[in-house]
Design a protein that fits this description.
alpha/beta, Rossmann fold, Dihydrodipicolinate Reductase, domain 2, Alpha-Beta Plaits, 11-stranded mixed beta sheet, 6-stranded parallel beta sheet, 16 helices, binds L-homoserine, NADP, EC 1.1.1.3, oxidoreductase, ACT-like_dom_sf
Length: 438
């Protein structure tokens, strides 16, 4: 075999970017990989779109198909890149490709978050590689960093801004003072948000990604159904302003932490100190902070989406396959960083058992006794207040903002439900988790 033969499923923004970068940087890539890597087949439902993009040379050398099965059944193909998206058709195609002995490269986080365990165990039996650098934080080589670069460490926690759409929206809300709906419309106009932005704004995309990072950080099976998810669609400008006044930024943070009793995996709006590096990741950029025992904190920053950045990650995986496809599978980097027979059954903690600190905004009538009644409830639930500010909007109604020390989530929820029924409390309490990230 004098070149590595690749079949590409899906020729959208990322697929065409992969084809283009492979072509532009072919010589460098071949020098690194040890042999040429060439796309020999592309399957897409819009064959004309693909053909109109390819040069005459490509059209002579690449088969353009509208049937994905012809591609994955082609014995000439060594690696299948899956860039179709979604989680039903790609699952079938990937399992069949594995059965056919192909190595797999995919950017499909939704698929891996739901079906990764099955895909990896099937691939393990067959002795093929499944690589997914592009599935988390686009062009940032975070999977490689955790699986290989940090392999000496016990990882303590990971916190990331791993959804560019929501980071763009929150940055714009802070910088312009506009509300969520207006900024979301702008994000759609600029092409940051999908027409149906649910996966992004409700935190699901970030949850897929942090679920995968948690597995490779702690050596646990992928457990997306136990990941806690809360999006940004209910956030209001008022809390962004108060957060700023208190020295915090409001971000959608994806976190996974190892604790004595188990592992936390959660995605939610979070206040983080304004002087920490993550707080200054603006616009659609992504960043991941990893706290490990030997090296301490390391941080990775870059573009989490887009044609060439994502292609960069996909091609890195193609090079990895090319360098090691002949290696005995036992000596390859394991799918989830830990050897398949050494995965752990650490419990995933329920959100009620999470320990962190909290921002509580309580809108009340401004009269004597209010603070003492609220404080008593907080004390009853063992919640210690770190700081408190009162912001009056008019003579009778005021916002009281509490920042707590670390508390158990279920205590906070119980305290909130007791405070909300006090006669002088006017609205539902806004509760936002606060992370120190140190
Ligand atoms: N929709 C994602 C984001 C990019 O906004 O970051 C692909 O995962």
């Amino acid at each position: 075999m004098n070149s590595m033969k690749v079949g590409l499923l899906g020729f959208g923004v990322v697929g065409s970017g992969t084809w283009e970068v492979l072509k532009n940087n072919a010589e460098e890539i071949a020098r690194r990989a040890g042999k040429k890597i060439e796309i020999v087949s592309i399957a897409d439902k819009d064959v004309n779109k693909v053909k109109s993009r390819l040069s005459a040379y490509d059209l002579n050398n690449i088969s353009v198909l509208n049937d994905a099965y012809s591609l994955i059944n082609d014995p000439n193909i060594d690696i299948v890149i899956e860039l179709i998206g979604g989680d039903t058709v790609p699952l079938e195609l990937i399992l069949k490709s594995i059965e056919n002995g192909k190595h797999i490269v995919t950017a499909n986080k939704a698929l891996l978050a739901k079906h990764g365990n099955k895909i990896f165990s099937t691939a393990h039996k067959k002795g093929v590689m499944v690589l997914f650098e592009a599935a988390v934080a686009g062009g940032i080589p975070i999977i490689k960093a955790i699986r290989e670069g940090l392999t000496a460490n016990k990882i303590e926690w990971i916190a990331g801004i791993i959804n560019g759409t929501t980071n763009f929206i929150l940055s714009e809300m802070k910088n312009t003072g506009m509300n969520f709906e207006i900024v979301l419309a702008k994000a759609k106009e600029l092409g940051y948000a999908e027409l149906d932005p649910t996966f992004d704004i409700e935190g699901i995309d970030a949850a897929h990604k942090i679920t995968l990072l948690s597995s490779i950080a702690f050596g646990i099976p992928i457990q997306f159904d136990k990941t806690y998810i809360e999006g940004i669609s209910k956030l209001s400008q008022i809390d962004i302003n108060y957060a700023e006044q208190l020295g915090y930024r409001l971000k959608l943070i994806a976190i996974t932490k190892k604790r004595d009793k188990g592992i936390e995996i959660r995605v939610h709006p979070t206040l983080i100190p304004e002087n920490c590096l993550l707080a200054n990741v603006e616009g659609a950029m992504n960043a991941v902070l990893v706290q490990s025992d030997a090296v301490g904190p390391t941080m990775y920053y870059g573009q989490g989406a887009g044609s060439f950045p994502t292609a960069s990650a996909i091609i890195a995986d193609l090079v990895d396959v090319t360098r090691s496809y002949k290696v005995d599978p036992h000596y390859r980097v394991p799918y989830l960083a830990f050897q398949p027979n050494s995965l752990s059954d650490y419990r995933i903690l329920h959100i009620d058992d999470v320990i962190t600190s909290y921002y509580l905004r309580i809108t009340t009538i401004d009269k004597p006794g209010v603070l003492s009644d609220i404080s008593k409830i907080l004390t009853d639930f063992n919640i210690s207040v770190k700081s408190m500010v009162q912001k009056s909007s008019n003579k009778e109604i005021t916002d009281i903002v509490f920042l707590t020390h670390d508390a158990i989530e279920k205590d906070i929820k119980n305290a909130i439900s007791k405070i909300e029924i006090l006669s002088f409390v006017k609205n539902k309490i806004t509760c936002i988790r606060v992370e120190k990230l140190v």
